[in-house]
Each structure stands twice: as structure tokens, then as C-alpha cells.
Amino acid sequence: MNIDRRHLALPALALGLISAFVPRAFALSADEEAVAKNLETFRKAQAAQDAKALDALTASELSYSHSDAHIEDKATFVKNATNGKSKSISLEYKDPSIRVVGDAAIVRFHWVAESEAVADGKRSSTNLAILMTWQKQGGEWKLLDRASTKL
After folding, report:
1. Based on C-alpha coordinates, what's the Rg of the chain?
2. In a domain, 1, yes or no
3. Residue spans of the chain under pLDDT 50
4. Separation CA 46–CA 100 (nearest Å)
5. Which terminus of the chain, N or C, has less C-beta within 10 A?
6. DSSP bridge pairs for 3
7. Residue 5 gets which letter from DSSP?
8. Residue 117 domain-assigned?
9. Count: domains in the chain
């Protein structure tokens, strides 16, 4: 079979049209990019128990719900997340999805972590479904609330 330019024209045209539209369809908006960046910064701050970073990323109205149903306000969350009673061995936010709606962002992901208690070296694993709401406050995205469910 001989292939000439006519045989290549239609596939080349189709590929060109697809490539013109597909990147835009999957590209994150500027707000989604900003939320994604804050989400990763938040993950790193949790793993490092960085009180200053956690404080900066959370709204003063924070409602932080744990998988055992206890709820913390901002001050309690930052204090407990950085108390040094355990250390993070690994913390992953798998398959995050971000949907911006006005000045709010709905974020979902799969939390997979392993930590070690400082007192006795006992290791524990967590496997959770997480729902977060981030709110744009003064031009910055802040974590407003967080809920989790054990998987």
C-alpha cells in the first residue's frame, strides 16, 4: 500500500484540531491552580507540623472535623497538629479533585498516612476520604472546613 499526502491529510487535520482543544479542556483555572498549590503546602505543613504555615493557610473560622467525629476550631487544630506527640512517616493526598464555585473551592482527596507515636514508637496508619472547603479571603485561599471519613 502506498501512502501519499492525501492519506495523511485527514489524520493530521484531526490531530491538529484535537490538540487545539484538549489542553484547554483539562487545564486548571488560575484559582484552581492557587488552591492546588495551597493544598500541597498544607499537606507539607501537616507532615512537618509547621504551626506558622498551618496558621497562615487556615481561616479564623476553621471547622476541622476528624474521622472519629471530634471537631476542632483553628486554635485547637493548630495546637494539636503541632504538639509533637507523633511524627509523620508518610502523608499522601491521592487523586485530589478541585472545583471552584465563586469564592469557594470544593476539594476532595484520598488521605493515606503513616505516623509514629513519639512516646512509645507505635506506628499507625490512616486511610481516609477527605472533603475540604477553601474560601477566597482577601485574595488568598484559606481552608474554611474539613471533614473526613474512614475508608
Report:
1. 21
2. no
3. 13, 17, 19-20, 22-25
4. 23
5. N
6. none
7. H
8. yes
9. 1
C-beta separation of 110 from 149 below 8 A? no
Q: One-letter amino acid identity for 63?
A: S
Question: 0.85 cut: is pTM over it?
Answer: no
Could you give the CA distance from residue 51 to residue 75 in angstroms, rounded to a whole number?
10
One-letter amino acid at 45 equals A
Domain that holds residue 113: 28-150
Quick one: 143 exposed, middle or buried, by C-beta within 10 A (0-12, 13-18, 19+)?
A: buried
How far apart (Å, rounded) are the C-alpha atoms in residues 77 and 125?
20
Confidence at residue 22, expressed as pLDDT on a 0 to 100 scale = 45
- Compute the distance between CA of residue 151 and CA of residue 110 in angstroms, rounded to an integer: 9
Q: How many CB atoms lie within 10 A of CB 146?
A: 21
